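Q: Okay, next protein. This is DUF58 domain-containing protein from Fibrella rubiginis. I've checked the sequence twice, so it should be correct. Can you predict the 3D structure?
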Amino acid sequence: MKIFRALFVSVRLWLILLGFALAFVVAYVWPLLFPLVQIAFAAFVVLLLTEGFLLFRQSTVGNQPVFFARRDMPERLSNGDENPITLYLESRYAFATPVEIIDEIPFQFQRRDVLFTAHLKPNEPRAIRYELRPTRRGEYSFGAVNVFVMTPLRLLKRRFQFEEGRLVPVYPSYLQMRQYELLAVSNRLTELGIKRIRRVGHSMEFEQIRPYTQGDDLRSINWKATARRADSGQAALIVNAYQDERSQAVYCLIDKGRVMQSPFEGLTLLDYAINASLVLSNIALMKQDRAGLITFSEKIGQVVPAERRPGHMRKLLEVLFRQKTRFLETDFEALYTTIRTQVRQRSLLLLFTNFETLNGLQRQLPYLRRLAKDHLLLVIFFDNTELRGLLNTPARSTEEIYMKTIGEKFAYEKRQIVKELQQYGIASILTAPQDLTANTVNKYLEMKARGMI
């Protein structure tokens, strides 16, 4: 029974059988051809049995399986990123084996093209690489790696199955977080669109004094220390060295309401906000600040106090991974109450939400003004990229003119929302979803450089 379960036939075999059927029909009309067709068919049957024998005669070679395959992938996948998957193959057949590989990927990807072909020589390892881009957090179930091995005749197939039943969690974009972290360490954040911020004045903490080097700000020269050094016979300029102010509290406030349900390139705005929050929290910890998190919708979700302890980044990652929502109406009053009772120190609050109309902002503006009174509030909301594409397309009919007029109205209201927030001294970012992380990190570094937090 195992042999029959592993036995499959190729399309080539069905075509040959169809050809023999037509040949027998022709031989029925011309009987002289019948013996030739019979001999050819008998030879074909012998060839088929020989191929089956070569495929199934052994399951191992020595102590090793006759064919081996393995799926190599991360222990967790990064949401919204291209995650590398590698299939390792090795054949120990005595002859060259054409193979077909079907990887049973989770249904969430809705892909039917994960079929690969290869041609393996005896004892030749082969690696096949492809990428998967998940668009939802959660657990994904991978099935088996099905390998169909054939002889050079390609008539019969023997199926091997490997890596059955594996659950892999999909976390917020930790690949993006690592990318920003590595570039921040090497001072190459400009490659991701992060601007260099010129520091104005000395809004930083004093760290130490050191000898002057070319490029130092002349205003930082410590003349008293320089004079003392000159009196001792060492003529060298001494400058004051400063470091960024540390231990500032930075909170990411993530709106999980219905306004964050809109999709963009497969991800919801909520997932874009979660990915950006993860990156920003990591950058804040690298800048010696304390990172915290509050999620909210119709009620308050998780509250993670701002800390900078070992393992805190891991804690934030796990909390963001488990975020669930029904996309109901957001309660900003509950958010304000929670922050007032649990965030005692003046902090930087980065509010990830979305406003489509000016009326929608004005309903929540009283709570935003109260938050801005006690904290430094930065409201981050999204530009409608589909609407932007509509506005950039020339109208060719009356209906398109009508649609474009409505689009202009919505775009105008987005700009009015920014001005309305500026009127009350509330900083804001209007950004496309794909630029959210870079724009948010830019604004955080700008505020930090200017000593606003």
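A: Here is a summary of the prediction. The first strand starts at residue 7 and ends at 9. The mean pLDDT is 89.
Q: Noted. On to the next one.
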